[in-house]
């Protein structure tokens, strides 16, 4: 299949005064349409920077990002991001937050009533339609992430970017949301690029896991295919040898070969 | 500052009042007891200031009782200026009108000057908060200009406008605009990067960003500036009117001083204080409504 998203020889240097830090070095990654790819690595390895480069929020120093063959270097709704800390606007309701995105992205393409239906449909997809008139401060952390997900999905992105979307949640809520994301991916067939530091999450959700070495000058250390059939069930997978094998591969990479060394 | 202290005092008083009431009337019907509860709550808020006011008036009366006192006591003021106190809106000719009319005239000047200051202050503040270069260029200048006392601007503005009305309005504007600019700029600088990222991903244009992200996000800061601004405006209008003349509460005080009507001055001071208090509360109330839900998380 033709590459849907291509990260092409991306380097990123951060210059602070005369000190130049090499964050990412020669990252090349090709993602096909409908694929779910996770990027895993220790904190500080630059995986969030890589996602921000794809999102266009950060510019690469060298190399570029191609979406459907066209270079992208500024942010846009075709690469919607679900931010780690939900980033909902607190003065808008749940509905208002999603509607803001819908109004902006489909300004000319849909009528008022269609935009309303579209907003409600996306809220229903993440089971948040009942809380449409609540403000972000009145709902739980997991619900906020659901709304963030609805907002991103409402933009009909070509690639959905998830920046450690479940990082700030408790384990039970996280599992619940992972199941939701899996179901949505199954149903909608989105192309997803997810940043995570959770090995189980990466194996459970991904078609491929991209493992990054430690910084500075982090690069792609290994790419692991996860040949598990979908739909996946976390209970059945708990004893599945393929699942356990994949999990072991990632753990070995992270904790043996590229153990996290605390910078002095 | 005084407002917050008063609020704390109210908060401290309220629960004890409620407890007292429950203890006294345990067996009344619910509607009746709710009414009593409301009355008790009102009493706990109103009684202490009323008692203090009565005490203050009594001390004042005693202090001004001896013959040859330079200032009139409350009873003397009541005798001298009863018409001003009981009827704010009488109209007996061009210069013999109730203080209510004069206050309205002053408020009209304040509303024009303060209105312009609000719009200009928010726009300039947004520019300074958004642009590093605008901040570097303008912030030092503003920091110096804002310390210039309001009345020092008056001769300059009289020279420029050659008329007292626009000069007074200009003085209001120049007094109120600085806190609005500075607070807006701080509010805009404090917009979380997350909100900016959302705006970037959605590709909001400058206009949409201003209305949909900047203003709501910085609203608490902007209203702090607006509240300081309205207080300063009201301070400045009285002083400016004393010098520019015309109809207005400031000129009334100056006129009363020139004709030795000390009682009238005291009544005017009370009017000014009450109106200033109401203005502050009005802006605070608008702020509470507008910034509802703005506090993050």
Shape of chain A: globular
- Topology order of chain B in helix (H) and strand (E) letters: HHHHHHHHHHHH
CATH architecture of the largest domain in chain A: 3-Layer(aba) Sandwich
CATH class of the largest domain in chain A: Alpha Beta
Which stretches of chain B of 5+ consecutive residues score pLDDT under 50? 1-23
Question: How many H/I helical runs of chain A?
Answer: 8
Give the CATH level 1 class of chain B. Mainly Alpha
Spatial ordering of strands, largest sheet of chain A? 6-7-8-3-9-10
Strand content of chain A: 15-25%
Distance between the termini of chain A: 45 Å
The appropriate CATH architecture of chain B is Orthogonal Bundle
CATH homologous superfamily grouping of the largest domain in chain A = P-loop containing nucleotide triphosphate hydrolases
Largest sheet of chain A: 6 strands, mixed
Helix content of chain B: over 70%
Rg over alpha carbons of chain A:
19 Å
How many domain modules of chain A? Answer: 2
Radius of gyration of chain B: 24 Å
The percent range for helix content of chain A is 25-40%
CATH superfamily descriptor of chain B? MetI-like
How would you classify the quaternary structure? heterodimer
What does this structure look like?
- The complex is a heterodimer of chains A (264) and B (297).
- Chain A has 2 domains: 5-78 and 157-263, P-loop containing nucleotide triphosphate hydrolases (Rossmann fold); 89-156, no CATH class.
- Chain A is built from 8 helices and 10 strands.
- Chain A has helices at residues 47-55, 94-105, 112-125, 141-154, 171-188, 199-205, 234-237, 241-257, and strands at 3-16, 19-32, 36-40, 62-67, 70-71, 81-82, 160-163, 192-196, 208-212, 220-225.
- In chain A, β4 (62-67) and β5 (70-71) form a beta hairpin.
- In chain A, α2 packs across α3, α2 (94-105) runs parallel beside α4 and α6 (199-205) crosses α8.
- Chain A is globular and about 55 Å long.
- Chain B is mainly alpha-helical and 297 residues long.
- Chain B has one domain (82-291): MetI-like (MetI-like fold).
- Chain B is 80% helix and 0% strand.
- Chain B is built from 12 helices and no strands.
- Chain B has helices spanning 2-24, 30-63, 74-80, 82-86, 99-130, 132-145, 154-161, 164-189, 193-202, 206-244, 249-258, 262-290.
- In chain B, α5 runs antiparallel to α6, α7 (154-161) packs across α8 (164-189) and α10 packs parallel to α11 (249-258).
- The longest helix of chain B has 39 residues, at 206-244.
- Chain B is globular, with a radius of gyration of 24 Å.
- The relative contact order of chain B is 0.10.
- Mean pLDDT of chain B is 85; it is low at 1-23.
- The interface between A and B is medium-sized, with 24 and 21 residues.
């Amino acid at each position: 299949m033709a590459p849907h998203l291509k990260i092409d020889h991306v380097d990123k240097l951060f210059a602070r005064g005369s000190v130049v830090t090499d964050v990412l070095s020669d990252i090349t990654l090709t993602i096909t349409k409908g694929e779910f790819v996770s990027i895993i690595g220790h904190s500080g390895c630059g995986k969030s920077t890589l996602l921000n480069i794809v999102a266009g929020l950060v510019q690469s120093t060298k190399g570029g990002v191609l979406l459907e063959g066209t270079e992208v270097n500024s942010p846009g709704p075709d690469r919607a991001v679900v931010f780690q800390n939900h980033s909902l606007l607190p003065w808008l309701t749940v509905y208002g937050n999603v509607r803001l995105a819908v109004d902006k992205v489909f300004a000319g393409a849909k009528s008022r009533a269609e935009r309303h239906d579209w907003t409600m449909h996306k809220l229903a997809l993440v089971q948040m339609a009942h809380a449409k008139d609540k403000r972000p401060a009145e709902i739980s952390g997991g619900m906020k992430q659901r709304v963030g997900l609805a907002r991103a999905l409402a933009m009909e992105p070509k690639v959905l970017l998830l920046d450690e979307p479940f990082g700030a949640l408790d384990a039970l809520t996280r599992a619940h949301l992972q199941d939701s994301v899996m179901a949505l991916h199954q149903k909608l067939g989105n192309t997803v690029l997810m940043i995570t530091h959770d090995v189980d999450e990466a194996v459970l959700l991904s078609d491929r896991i991209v493992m990054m070495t430690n910084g500075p000058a982090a690069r792609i250390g290994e790419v692991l295919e996860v040949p598990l059939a979908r739909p996946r069930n976390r209970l059945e997978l708990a004893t599945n040898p393929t699942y356990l094998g994949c999990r072991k591969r990632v753990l070995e990479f992270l904790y043996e070969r590229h153990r996290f060394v605390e910078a002095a | 500052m005084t407002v917050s202290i008063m609020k704390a005092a109210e908060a401290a008083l309220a629960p004890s009042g409620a407890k007292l009431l429950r203890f006294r009337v345990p067996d009344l019907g619910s509607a009746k007891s709710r009414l009593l509860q409301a009355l008790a709550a009102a009493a706990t808020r109103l009684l202490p200031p009323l008692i203090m006011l009565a005490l203050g008036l009594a001390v004042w009366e005693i202090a001004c009782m001896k013959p040859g006192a330079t200032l009139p006591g409350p009873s003397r003021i009541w005798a001298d200026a009863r018409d001003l106190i009981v009827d704010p809106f009488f109209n007996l000719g061009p210069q013999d009108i109730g203080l209510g009319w004069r206050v309205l005239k002053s408020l009209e000047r304040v509303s024009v000057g303060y209105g312009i200051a609000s719009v200009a202050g928010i726009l300039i503040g947004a520019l300074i908060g958004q642009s590093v270069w605008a901040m570097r260029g303008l912030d030092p200048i503003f920091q110096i200009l804002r310390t210039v006392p309001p009345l020092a601007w008056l001769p300059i503005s009289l020279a420029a406008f050659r008329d007292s009305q626009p000069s007074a309005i200009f003085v209001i504007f120049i007094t109120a605009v600085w806190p609005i600019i500075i607070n807006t700029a701080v509010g805009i600088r404090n917009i979380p990067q997350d909100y900016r990222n959302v705006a970037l991903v959605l590709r909001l244009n400058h206009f949409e960003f201003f209305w949909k992200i900047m203003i709501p996000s910085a609203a608490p800061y902007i209203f702090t500036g607006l509240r300081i601004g309205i207080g300063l405006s009201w301070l400045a209008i009285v002083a400016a009117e004393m010098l520019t003349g015309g109809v207005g509460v400031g000129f009334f005080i100056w006129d009363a001083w020139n004709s030795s009507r000390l009682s009238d001055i005291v009544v005017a001071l009370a009017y000014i204080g009450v109106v200033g208090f109401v203005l502050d509360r009005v802006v605070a109330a608008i702020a509470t409504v507008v910034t509802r839900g703005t506090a993050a998380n």
